[in-house]
Please model this.
Amino acid sequence: MTRVLLALAVFAFFALCVYGMWHGWQRRARQQAATLPEFPKKPATLGDDLIPSTTGVYVGTTNAGNWQDRIQAGDIGHRAEATLRLVPEGLSIERIGAEDLFIPKTAIKDVRTDKGLAGKVMFGDGLLVFQWELEDRLFDTGFRGDDKSVYEQWVVALSQEENSAGGKA
Model:
């Protein structure tokens, strides 16, 4: 009988911890939804890919400079399988099971490879991270590609786009 009560107590403690985490996630999402600007919508039509698209996982979006400060408003905080496309209008992250994320070309400030973002840590530079601006706020958006050998191509292509748009020197 003592073992059954102990097992029930451990289960109840575990359930309370899960409820607390869920409640905290919901509260944080509500707070962010009230203070964040509306994220850009993907245009109805997009131009042709400037470089070949790549598949992988959308890791998340954080406030720039704080790799663990995940944006949770709406479904922005949900990881999802995705296809990453660079088109003349900007960067399109087409997510499966979640709303697509679109970053206008003029909003992209930097692109880099990194080892961690939004609680996801990889060996080496396993993530492609895009820094972008929306209404004077900087965000980092992470993508873990299935083929990491294309990362350099993405960094070069976006750096050239920034230079031609007068973004980066």
User: Anything to note?
Assistant: Helices lie at 2-35, 151-164.
